[in-house]
Amino acid sequence: MARFLSSVVLATLSALQAVAAEEFALGIYGPITSVSNTFLATAVAFDIDFRKHFNASLQERFGAPIIQVTGALHPALVNFTVRIGTSDSNPDVGVTTVLDFILGRDGRTPISGLVGGLHSAISMPVASLAATFNVPQVAWASTSPKLSNKDAYPYFLRTMPPDSIQGSAFWQWLVHFQVPSAVFIYSMESYGEGLFQAVGNNAALAGQSYRVSGVGVRYMPVYYDVEEARASLRLAMGVGTKFLLLGMTTDQSSRFFPVMQDEGVLTQDWQLLASKSVSVNAASTSGFTKDDLPIGFMQFYPVSKGPKFPEFEKLWLQLTADDVIGTDASSRYNLDKLKVSLDSMRVRKVDDSFFSNTSLMQLEEPFLFDAAYTFLLAVNDLLNEGKSLAQINGPVLLAKLKTASFEGISGHVSFNADGDRLASYHLINMQPAPGGGRALVVNGMFNSATKLLSFVGVDPPYWMDGLRHDSLPDNLVICAEGFTTEAGTGMCKPCPAGYYSPGGRGQQCSKCPRGSFAASSGSWNCTLCAQGSYAPEVGSSSCDLCVAGFFAEAPGQEGCFRCPVGRFIASSGASSCSPCGLKMVTPESGTDSAGLCQCAAGSFFLRSSPASSLSESEGCTSCLEGLACPAGLGPPLQLPGFWAEVLDEQARDYSVVRCRNSWECNGGLLGSCADGRQGRACNSCKDGYHPLTDGTCGECAAQDSLPMVYLVLGVALLMIFALIMVNSDLSQQSLNILTIVAVGSQLVMAVQALGAIRQMKIHWVEPVLSVLEFTKLLNFDFDVVNLSCFCPSDDPVVKFVFQLLVYPFCVAVLGITWGISYIARRPVRFDNVFNINGLVLFGFFITLTLTVLLPFQCVGNPNGTASMVTNPGITCYSSARHEGLVALAVLGVLAYPVTIITWIGWTTVKYPSRVSSGTGLHLVQRYRFLFNRFHPHAYYYGLVLLIRNLFVAILPVALVSAPALQVVAMGALLLSSAVVQSRVWPWRTEAANLADLTMSCFLVVVMLGAAPLLDLGQSETEATLGVLLCFAMFGPLLVAICAIAHGVYRRFSPASSYSVFLCHHKGGAGSLARWLKLQIGTHTSCQVFLDSDQLEGLDLIFDTIRSQTKNLVILLTPELLQRMWCAGEIVTAHRNKIPIVTVICDGFAHLIEEELENVPSFWTEQQKHTLASFGISMDMVKEAYRHLQGIPHFTMPRFGSEEKQAGSVLEIVNCCRLPKRAFSSSVGSGSSSTSRPRILITGAVADAEALSVCQTFQILVQRNTQVQAAVVRSREEMENRLPFASYVVVLFSRGMLRDPNFAKILLSANCLRGSAWGRKPELVTVSADAGFEFPGPEFYRELELQGLGLSDAAGSGLLGAEAGPELAQAYRSLLSVLALPLSPLGSIVLLEKQVSEICRRRFHKHV
């Protein structure tokens, strides 16, 4: 087959050569794109020198040919052509380039001869390829000795001497200088390996192979791994000699030099001798140049410059870049077909500076030039011998090449039988240059014929210590690590096995210490004995193995250790002992057999299946959680608090779950329960049994069902009694009753909270355990009343249904009782029934919520499932019974906590608007259970309590898997609620507040005391509490940071803005402004500025309008425009474009133009100066007043109906574009004719300001008492409302006693109060005007004689003399009542305090 392929190739080549019979093509290749472009320039220089023979212009430009053609110059030689390719230092690229040359795949004539290349690693496959096609090859480098084998490479010749000669030069250098030993570092390719082999062969022939050792560096033509090269270098540095021989290709050495520099090899402590191909000029890609080589560096160079070399240098200096890579050159040499383009190559591209001097020329350039001329001369001789160009190829051409002999630029060129050129080598030495710097100088010569090394001149070479020496420097012959100086020869000899040496002068070999050994000679340190072995003596060359039953786990042991208990080893040399089979243990240490293995305490023997053999068993398995496993092979036992189901007795397959407590599952045999109990986790009592306090179940007797009956009857009677009590008149109930009810509800909630705490994972102890038993009933735990004796069986689902039906049962009792009251014609008001229902829901909210959440309170079991905490026999989310309970629980959640919280939340949110409106106060009375127990300012506290109770119920369920967190969270919740309660002080009586605070504190104490009783493992508790305590410790820091941040924010942030600024005249609309602010507050939560509430900032009032006000609302009364401060406010708003809303009150009229011009006369010079100090001139005032006349206005009917007044307020709110409350009411004050207010308020209602005071007082009283109040404006209103009122309040103001309307209202009230039909409301007086003067005797005498001197407008009589005595008596009665003070023009804080005091002291029926 091979012969067939060869014949096909030869036939193809012959056909191609026949086509190109008139041309001899020579291919030249080399690493022109990876090593140096000078190779390309040298190839071009040859072609130019050859063409001088035929081209006169070239001869004129460059001179005569350097090498004259021997014999006659044949004319056909003009068809001698050259083309150039690249190997790019890559064998694949090189082979492909040559194959294109040979087959003409590059578009040119197939070559008949080949010149190249540089790398032996590439030349070897190329030489094989050329031999296949019978194409002779002359290399200009590629010095590997392997290429001398003509059997493998018959068509290969080279102009550079082979490495076998260079190897002899290296050896002679070692011999001449008496180097004791050296290490040869070589690249692992043909060149490096061949050179190392040549040096080694010379050492072997001399019988001194030990003097040369080698370290190879992987050949890396593409990607150079610096770290891999570094590792190889360090290996060479550790051989024990300071002499390094370097044999590498040019591209590899250029990258290896920086590594040697990094590792400190290029210093005085080493000596380096390099081969000819080691680059000292072309390593520019790495930044390393020959200037970085140290003084004393040595290198062998083949003699490359013959007598004709100066002529070549002259030619070189005449070249240009255009000659090499110009357009004509690229076309002639086919450079556009290079495998790696000149634009993407790794080396510097040819330019004119290349030829400015010869510094860039490489060592190999002369050999390349001469190799090309070898072909040219051979072709010319064959042409002269009569051969045609078509015949000059293959063996004919090869035979002629072998006989070549001519004088080239590198010297005389001839070849031996192996195709090698024999040449001498120069010893190059880096020496200081005379003018400074350094230079490579020829210091010696190796003659290839005599194989002797001689030196030039009388001066010895420089060594790398920077000095000249005839012999080796002392620092280089000191022995390295692992060696000692041999007496007599001075050579470094390796230490024998068992010994080591750190190296250095005078160092002797030392014995290895115990636990270590040196197995081979030349050790610089001792190796620790491996695991499983030991060395008991010093100077050991090996380690002994541990015997059976003993082991050596760590290296470097002097002796072995006994196997610990539970392990054994039956073999020697063990580094560890094997565990007993099947997870068993041994009774003692040092066991060498598995016969004594057994299960330890805390584990039990487990088979993988009933039929499995001992070897197939799982062996001793760790005891399951909840089980006790004594030592031995018997089955485990139950621990108290756990219950185990035996799934497979033979395979010992158990399923362990948690029990409700340790009394119901008291430990012992698997599956056992306390007496009378049955089922999974001992969850239920047997049929006909009921639970006892010790965890057992007792048999039901006849009387055991009575407690359940008594409970049902007791609850029914309690509901009836509560309904009767609440149906009594509230006005007759004292605050003591309220305190009792409040404290009672607190106690019920506290007991329920204890019940919730009882659900936590706490190991309760006596006597607390017994006390907690009493909380069960209030938490609907009907086991206390023997429910299982009342029902057919102890079924958890039945118990849960009973718990859910407790509230419906109470509602049914209330409904039935209410219905019976109507039948008996002693009806109970619906509000009372509603209140009782609310009290039940409010009081038992924790229990109701906790009850419906209990099906979700699941805890994990050791078997991986989860069970209900209250009924551990029910598996969560995987059993039908639990699915039924969850369905009922979801309905319960929607029916109880969700509905109650939503309902109470809505009612609480609506409370402020209902109180302010008055019409909703009857609904507030219906929610007395929610609001009546708390102060008006804390009306929301009922919702707060419900939310707290919601979390009290949720925490035991939500945090069931984190018991430690349960206690901390519950304690934090109770403590937080206590802090809030102490801050708000919400309950209406002092006793109730103190009781609530005390109960909360005791509950916190309970949580503190229960923390150590948590039923947890130590590690789990420490981990959880550690994190929580960390948060608590950083809490003060966090609080401090927040407080400081808030202070900084408040310091630099602008004050909160006001949506409305009320501009008014205090005397004409001060009370109206207060009433208007209260009314706006019912519609929006925006801030309203009223000067009486901001007394401390009146000096900044104009700035407030300018920078913090969105709308200015002006209450236009007759005197307003004449008030200096009002004028300033109006001007400031007008000048700053603040929206202005004008509200015209009764009696106001805008100023006419004449009056506007007289505006300056309104104020004194001092007042005008004050305005001017704020930048306000009189012209600005006039302009602002004119502006008021042109803007739309609203009318406030001060004596109009409440509906009209409420409409005006709403218009003002809308005009100011204020955001409205989500739940605000749009009704008025609630004083409609159909309402029945309990508090009537009157006064000088014919006076606008006095009426506004009454309206303001009405709103504040309603807020404080939660009782509907109304302002009485006429006698008719008094007559209609007095029968239903409890109090009549009269607000004293100036001129009231002479107001006929008030007199008629008072007389009507006196008449009705004295009648037998109606109740007698209590009279309350309030002094609302500091200008009110109590009359003297003269007033009463005048009144009795003349009356008021007016007629009744209704025609019912006179208010003159005939009515005088009655009116005087009414006034005396009125003024005899102590009047409490009220400051209507004061701040809201003062007003609320005064109203609260009036309500507390006077309205005792409703406070």
Automatic annotation (TrEMBL):
* SMART domains assigned: Ephrin_rec_like
Topology relative to the lipid bilayer, per the entry, is:
Multi-pass membrane protein
- Transmembrane ranges, per UniProt, are 708-726, 738-757, 800-824, 836-856, 885-906, 938-958, 994-1014, 1026-1049
What this protein is called in its record is Receptor ligand binding region domain-containing protein
Keywords annotated in UniProt: Glycoprotein, Membrane, Receptor, Signal, Transmembrane, Transmembrane helix
Where is it localised? Answer: Membrane
- Provenance organism: Polarella glacialis
Q: Species lineage, top-down?
A: Eukaryota, Sar, Alveolata, Dinophyceae, Suessiales
GO annotation, cellular component aspect? membrane
| Tagged with keyword Glycoprotein | yes
SUPFAM superfamilies under this entry? Answer: Growth factor receptor domain, Periplasmic binding protein-like I, Toll/Interleukin receptor TIR domain
